[in-house]
Specification:
Elements: H1 9-22, H2 29-34, H3 40-49, H4 56-72, H5 81-90, E1 96-98, H6 103-113, E2 118-120, H7 133-142, E3 150-153, H8 156-165, E4 168-172, E5 184-187, H9 195-202
């Protein structure tokens, strides 16, 4: 969800900066980028290390509340995200939203979009990304072998989770340069990804759709 489908990372970083500064600490945009794709527990530990003296639940509630309010003001879609989701839905392809964000954020977004068959959020699993459990759970709920699934991910943690699950994986390099992995397809933007491309990837092709340097 965050980063791949909607551009919420600036909201997360702004919330982190606000929270740390309220305790007299310093949190930079670089610190925020280092949290991309990680579960809430990682962010909570890092924020506490910068002086945020609150229980885990209060830190999570603060961040989730700020981001939820920002998204409620208007969904910040990534280029091509709405279009590829609609095309997949119209083609009858079952889809799961698999995110490290908590359900308090993921469920309202999924309901607004109205295209997902399944939602697996960060607080739905015992072992969040980079563990494969989120993707294995999504495949089970969809009733599809995970090897027949294609996962779209924009973070190192998410790619690691999806690859470990056995799914075909597309790295969408929106915010982070993602390391090469065997069998990993790559794209700069969802606007450059078509149904035909996804069908080839699902069949086992590995595609690099990034513009030539």
């Amino acid at each position: 969800m965050d980063g791949t489908l909607i551009d919420t990372e600036p909201y997360w970083i702004a919330a982190e900066i606000e929270l740390v500064e309220s305790f007299g600490g310093v949190w930079t945009h670089e610190d925020g980028y280092a949290m991309v794709g990680n579960p809430m527990s990682v962010a909570v530990t890092a924020l506490r290390g910068r002086g945020v003296d609150l229980p885990d639940e209060e830190i999570a509630d603060f961040l989730n509340g700020r981001v939820r309010a920002a998204v409620a003001a208007g969904v910040p879609w990534q280029p091509g995200a709405q279009e590829i989701l609609r095309a997949l839905h119209d083609a009858g392809v079952p889809m799961a939203l698999v995110t490290s964000s908590f359900r308090v954020l993921a469920q309202p977004f999924a309901e607004v979009v109205g295209l997902f068959d399944v939602v697996v959020s960060g607080d739905d699993v015992a072992r969040p990304k980079p563990d494969p459990e989120p993707y294995l759970t999504a495949a089970r709920l969809l009733g599809v072998p995970v090897e027949r699934c294609v996962a779209l991910e924009d973070s190192r943690s998410g790619v690691a989770s999806a690859v470990a699950s056995g799914a075909r994986v597309v790295a969408v390099e929106v915010m982070q340069e993602l390391e090469d992995r065997e069998g990993l397809s790559r794209v700069r933007s969802l606007a450059d990804l078509s149904l035909a491309d996804l069908a080839r990837i699902a069949a086992g092709d590995v595609l690099d759709l990034r513009p030539a340097a």
